[in-house]
Design brief:
Elements lengths: L12 H11 L1 E11 L2 E12 L2 H6 L16 H14 L5
Antiparallel strand pairs: 1-2
Length: 92
Amino acid sequence: MSLKLEPRRDLSLVDLLDRILDKGIVINGDISLSVGKVELLSLKINLVIASLETAKRYGLRLPWETESKGGERLQEKAPRRLSTLRNYKVVS
């Protein structure tokens, strides 16, 4: 009795990107460059690739949802900064 294997469906780049955005992907890494016992360079990488819907579903805070040092949300602070800039006059 022989077993016949069916070929797998080819995965295109669009299908792969759709799957990554739907499910999300997280990459964490630490890279260090040392000579002897002296550490010359240290990199810590935290990368999240996901759609906005997936990120919110898993509870990730989006950049415009984070608070500034004054406790004010950044999206609330932006219009005030813009109105302040409009009040400045350029002197030549």
